[in-house]
Write a structure and sequence with these properties.
Elements lengths: L7 E5 L4 H12 L3 E6 L2 H11 L4 E5 L5 H15 L4 E4 L14 H29 L3 E5 L12 H20 L5 E7 L13 H9 L11 H11 L9 E4 L7
Parallel strand pairs: 1-2, 1-4, 2-3, 4-5, 5-6, 6-7
Helix pairs in contact: 1-7, 3-4, 4-5
């Protein structure tokens, strides 16, 4: 028997990348999943693949607090509980500060910081009342160090690390808290970069080319955190391709 069998796991950003692959691996290990993302058609297809008895979904914009609360309540109403939250939704429109792409900065703050906080808030009291729970937040190695063009994105991901540590301290003895810092892996994050000068810079830097490893490697790290028995937690996991030197 898998040690996550029977768990109910809420995953944001579940329509692609880490979230989608994690959902598949969780169900393979006998868990139930509650999936949220903005692209309803993709969520519907994923739940059909996983089996409607194992997976449910609700179209969710994590910048909308009510929608995040509705997603959590939908999971609780359907499966009776939420054991774990995988706070995965995020965007990465890298740009140089001189470009002044303030709308993108606002979006990153709303999704990468507020969205994380809204999801934590949506499950926190439920988990505390049950006496246990896991919260896994997905940051980035950009939340450990910066590259040119990552100032605002890195700021949001440093914030995820700080929020995770604060949550760990405040919920000590009650919740298992993990923050995962992925390096370059195959997701759709790169498609959110619209600053042409940033795209040209990335293309010109050989160290950024052909680095990405499969998203499954991060899903496996998430599963590792989920499998920790009550009383311990993998507080931080940093995972990079071996070819990545930053």
């Amino acid at each position: 028997m898998s040690c996550i069998e029977g768990k109910v796991i809420l995953i944001t950003g579940a329509s692609s990348g880490f979230g989608m692959v994690t959902a598949k691996q969780c169900v393979e290990h006998g868990a139930k999943v509650v999936l949220g993302a903005r692209r309803e058609d993709r969520l519907s297809d994923l739940c059909s693949e996983l089996g409607n008895e194992n997976a449910i979904f609700k179209a969710t914009d994590v910048t909308n607090k009510q929608q995040v609360n509705d997603l959590a309540n939908f999971g609780i109403d359907t499966f009776g509980k939420i054991d774990s939250l995988v706070n995965n939704a995020g965007i990465m429109p890298l740009s140089f500060i001189e470009q002044g792409r303030t709308d993108e900065w606002d979006s990153m703050i709303d999704v990468n910081i507020k969205g994380v906080l809204y999801a934590i808030d949506a499950v926190y009291n439920h988990m505390i009342e049950r006496g246990n729970g896991q919260i896994i937040n997905i940051s980035s190695v950009a939340g450990k160090r910066l590259i040119p063009g990552s100032a605002v994105y890195s700021g949001t991901k440093f914030a995820v690390g700080a929020i995770s540590e604060g949550l760990r301290i405040e919920s000590a003895g009650k919740l298992q808290v993990t923050c995962i810092f992925p390096g370059a892996f195959e997701t759709e994050l790169g498609t959110t970069i619209k600053d042409t000068s940033m795209l040209e810079y990335l293309a010109s830097e050989a160290k950024y080319v052909n680095l990405a490893q499969p998203a499954e490697r991060i899903a496996e790290a998430i599963l590792y955190a989920l499998k920790q028995k009550p009383g311990v937690a993998a507080n931080e996991i940093v995972l990079r391709p071996t070819a990545q030197d930053f």
